[in-house]
Amino acid sequence: MYLYFEGIIHNYQMPFQRTTKIRDIMTRKLETIGSTASAHEVAIKMRDKKVSSVLVMDERYGIPLGIVTERDLARKVCVTDKNSTQLLASKVMSFPLIKVNSEVSALEAADLMLKNKVRHLLVVSTESQQEKRENGINEDKDLLKPVGIITPMDFIRYKLVISSGYLSKDSHEDNDTKRILEYYKNDANFD
């Protein structure tokens, strides 16, 4: 089914690909936790904040290292019968962290999820920053700033908003969203 779905994305030119950006449908609620936090603390934060994932950050440099999802907790903590208070978030997290720019289309993000067999993508925006070197020359640097998370649930929410008539709907866009959702519904091999 993956090859069939991949063919749909690459061979069918759709308005969905040009119009709907990830920034329009992503979840902006981005929760973070330090890499030395315990799996137990991660689970509590996820419950309290009502989120399905937490971004694991390097405490020293403030950069994202990985992501802990509900599935990670179930597969790496619960079924292994490990003590969640002794297991570090850095040992439970999924990595490498798959990132997507907030300006890409929803279809490109779905394709990236499928190719990497993940259900959570970190959405980033690029910010330019100038740094002055020791020799006095300014250097331009592009920094990736985490701005949200995209999951299959975001596609479902988007479809519901379109179906309810809150957004203008294109029939191709609706069919493409339906194909994306069907793929995720039928594929049990995602981590």
UniProtKB/TrEMBL annotation:
<dbReference type="InterPro" id="IPR046342">
    <property type="entry name" value="CBS_dom_sf"/>
</dbReference>
<dbReference type="InterPro" id="IPR051257">
    <property type="entry name" value="Diverse_CBS-Domain"/>
</dbReference>
<keyword id="KW-0129">CBS domain</keyword>
<dbReference type="InterPro" id="IPR000644">
    <property type="entry name" value="CBS_dom"/>
</dbReference>
<feature type="domain" description="CBS">
    <location>
        <begin position="93"/>
        <end position="171"/>
    </location>
</feature>
<feature type="domain" description="CBS">
    <location>
        <begin position="26"/>
        <end position="85"/>
    </location>
</feature>
<dbReference type="Pfam" id="PF00571">
    <property type="entry name" value="CBS"/>
</dbReference>
<protein>
    <submittedName>
        <fullName>Inosine 5'-monophosphate dehydrogenase</fullName>
    </submittedName>
</protein>
